[in-house]
Amino acid sequence: MVHTATVRIGQVAAEAGVNVPTLRYYERRGLLPTPPRGRPSGYRSYEPDAVLVVRFVKRAQHLGFSLDEIQTLLHLADGDRCAPARALAMAKIADMDQRIAALHSMRGALERLVATCDTPETQPDCPILQALEEPS
Asked: Which of 6, 41, 131, 136 falls 20 to 30 Å from 119 in CA-CA distance?
């Protein structure tokens, strides 16, 4: 963690484990406040907690939250709002469960298609390519 009063964008990026364009993108999205140009050089001066905010965003992304959802979580983190955060997390779990079920279904369909390749080659065309060419 940075121990100075304010830090420059490169320091925030390095300590948070992201690149400078990512920080600027987070600013445009409203996830990270745009810092004032407080130095005589004109460089922006970030508060030290900017690193914590970016790490929060990255951890939330790793858990599957979208940037819009993360913005909501950041607003909730400003106060004691555990119930809405829990509801958002439960909705994310339900969404993941649906995606996992869809992935299992897709995997099963692909396994069945691959199994058709094990049959004797009586057909001149590949059954996988035929299935992909057919309208669904």
From this structure: 136
Question: For 47-84, b where at least 16 C-beta lie within 10 A, e where not — what string?
Answer: ebebbebbebbbebeeeebeeebbbbbbebeeeeeeee
State pLDDT tens for residues 21-51.
Answer: 999 999 999 999 888 776 677 778 898 899 9
Answer yes or no: are the C-beta atoms of 75 and 54 closer than 8 Å. no
Place of tokens 């990270």: 32
Q: Which residues contact 34 (CB under 8 A, 6 or more apart)?
A: 27, 44
What is the rounded end-to-end Cα distance, in angstroms, of the chain?
54
Which single residue is written with the structure tokens 């406040």?
Answer: 33
